[in-house]
Specification:
This protein has 13 helices and twelve strands. It is of the alpha/beta class. Bound molecules: guanosine-5'-monophosphate (5GP) and manganese (II) ion. The site of guanosine-5'-monophosphate has 14 residues, from strand 11 and strand 12.
Length: 346
Amino acid sequence: MHDVTALKELLREPKHVFITTHHKPDADALGSSLGLAGYLRKKGHHVTVVTPSDYPDFLSWMPGNEDVVVYDPRRNDRQVREIIGTAEVLFCLDFSALSRIHELGEYVRQAPGTKVLVDHHEQPEPFADIAFSFPTAAATAELIFEIIRDLGDQALITPAIGECLYAGIMTDTGSFRHPSTSRNVHLIIAELLDAGIDLSSVHRRIYDSHSEERLRFLGFVLKDKLRVLREYNTAYIAITADELKQYHSKTGDTEGLVNFALSIEGIVFAAILIDRVQAVKISFRSVGSFSVSEFSRRHFNGGGHHNAAGGISHEPLEATVQKFLSLLPDYQADLVTAPLAVAPPQ
Ligand code: 5GP
Ligand code: MN
């Protein structure tokens, strides 16, 4: 049970509520935001969800998507400042540092409303008045479910709200295969099924809705761009801005590519480095004891979770790749292949 006393008091009367989540929202970020928004609207609150950037098309099916305000500094800066400045309650979901919401970070920091953090990343920044920060949770959507339940409102979870939350839990657990997939996670899914979610349709809408071009891009990346460094049990992919252009890459098209690198037998550390022109964005993944959040925090101004993290570099792509490669020898002793556990004979 979460201590929801302060939150319950805060939401006793209908309020103007602002919800935001991290830059380039993924399914957990958007699903948590729209799941919470759906619930709060049912409670009579006036809710605006603002994302700091656009997000992949394969998330646009989520109920409430049509009302999301996508922040664009050239187009709606004033409107968004006004929303943030007048919000009585500001929910910050699925991120632990205000830098992850870019320009919105300063606006939120200075906002007079009550700030509520719901998140599962490591090392939260202390900017919130009420914080639900649980790095062991599999997904922020798991926490949103629990908070709604602990507020005594589980009965208000409709299939629409439930499918948003399911999408977040499904994707952040890697379809229920990461070690974060606890008993609690499965019990919550059972509750969501009781609420009427269509689980396989969520799966299809997220994983089986690629464009043909995205699949061709995947083929190119796997054939020509994947590098395997056996001596470090490491695999990585570096993608130039020209290559993104050549394949008409859209937001979301590179998501999940890093997992292919990690799926090679014996590989414990995988990275994808993408030249986004303004900066090189990096995703790290690991299996076992090697902490990519620590690696990313120390060397690439990032962070995240033990086995999944992100970072950023303001050097050119090639220099960033060289920096990454030059670090590996220091970690050779940590990059050991974990033997796959086998259940003991009965
Ligand atoms: P992804 O590689 O899928 O973008 O992110 C992996 C995890 O690390 C996610 O939980 C994401 O929120 C987090 N993450 C991604 N980029 C950054 C970053 O630049 N800084 C921090 N602190 N976390 C990040
Ligand atoms: Mn998450």
